[in-house]
Write a structure and sequence with these properties.
By secondary structure, this protein is an alpha/beta fold. The protein has one domain (6-267): 2-Layer Sandwich (Nucleotidyltransferase, domain 5), CATH 3.30.420. Helix content is 40%, strand content 23%. It has helices spanning 6-20, 71-89, 106-118, 129-137, 172-183, 187-195, 200-221, 242-250, 263-267, and strands spanning 30-36, 40-47, 52-59, 63-64, 67-68, 95-100, 122-128, 142-147, 152-158, 161-168, 230-233. α5 packs across α6, α5 crosses α7 (200-221) and α7 (200-221) packs parallel to α8 (242-250). The termini are far apart.
Length: 283
């Protein structure tokens, strides 16, 4: 019998849908979710059972360190992706859930909500990014570390509810800055080098201190808690050494599932299992 967790096939299917622009037809109720990331905006659609139906993404930089810095760009991108998925599923989307970094001020949360409203979507729920990932991974007791392009978010869950969360401005963007400085490269060239799988051996030694800083954020966040499992997600955790770095700093095993970039976006439209992240938006 295979030891591969059942959620890994689901994540792989969703990642393929996003990359290839495919769709699985569904006649039942659908839920949509929007992940406004620092480097990518992803719209995910799932059926009533939480199975992926389709997804679309756009590389964009409308969010910086967990804050929307380009209102027009954000609303335009969400509106564009909304049209893409609507064409695939053959019906309009009235609403969607939206992901936010954990622990951000209420005013910043409202901005994320207003972006969806301006793009023509009612907001079904506002959910912390690590909580969205926890839904995909079926985690009700444990810790999820979401390392994005701009921030590192950490949420500790107990009995399906978030009991502690933090978010700090260290992510893939900061890796690129370190790499650019160390190699005397323009930012865009360093970013391309960082994302090139063939050059990981050149990159990992340079960016390891940044990974260690992210891991230290997580270690400090879970101090006083004893989560039975720790999961690492987010595009900036894709380096092969990342789980070992986090495990060394935290002093405990750390699991990074497949396709870490797509885990949080997939979980945004999923319904809570045994608890909620943030309260549904009041519009």
């Amino acid at each position: 019998m295979s030891d591969t967790p059942t959620y890994e096939n689901t994540i792989r299917r969703f990642a393929t849908m996003v990359r290839e622009g495919t769709c699985e037809r569904s006649s039942g109720a659908l839920r949509a979710g929007v992940d406004l990331g620092t480097a990518n905006i992803v719209v995910a659609v799932v059926d009533a059972e939480g199975r992926p139906v389709t997804g679309a993404w756009k590389h964009d930089t409308v969010v910086r360190d967990g804050v929307v810095v380009d209102w027009v760009g954000a609303t335009s991108a969400v509106r564009q992706l909304k049209r893409v998925v609507e064409e695939r599923i053959g019906r309009p989307l009235a609403g969607a859930s939206v992901a936010v970094p954990p622990g951000i001020p209420a005013g910043d949360v409202k901005v994320f909500v207003n972006v969806l409203h301006d793009a023509g979507l009612e907001v079904d729920e506002v959910v912390d990014e690590p909580v969205a990932a926890a839904r995909v991974l079926h985690v009700t007791d444990g810790c999820v570390i979401d390392v994005g392009h701009g921030t590192t978010g950490v949420s500790v869950l107990q009995a399906g509810r978030v009991v502690h969360s933090v978010d700090q401005a260290t992510g893939g963007h900061h890796m690129t800055l370190v790499l650019a400085g160390a190699r005397h490269l323009p930012y865009d060239v360093a970013e391309a080098m960082k994302q090139d799988p063939a050059r990981q051996d050149e990159v990992v030694g340079v960016i390891r201190p940044t990974l260690e800083k992210m891991a230290t954020i997580a270690r400090d966040a879970i101090a006083g808690f004893d989560p039975p499992a720790v999961y690492l997600v987010g595009g900036a955790s894709s380096f092969r050494t990342a789980p070992d770095v986090f495990s060394d700093v935290l002093g405990r095993p750390v699991t990074r599932p497949v396709e870490p970039l797509f885990i949080t976006p997939l979980g945004v439209p999923m319904t809570p299992q045994g608890g909620h992240g943030k309260e549904p938006a009041d519009g």
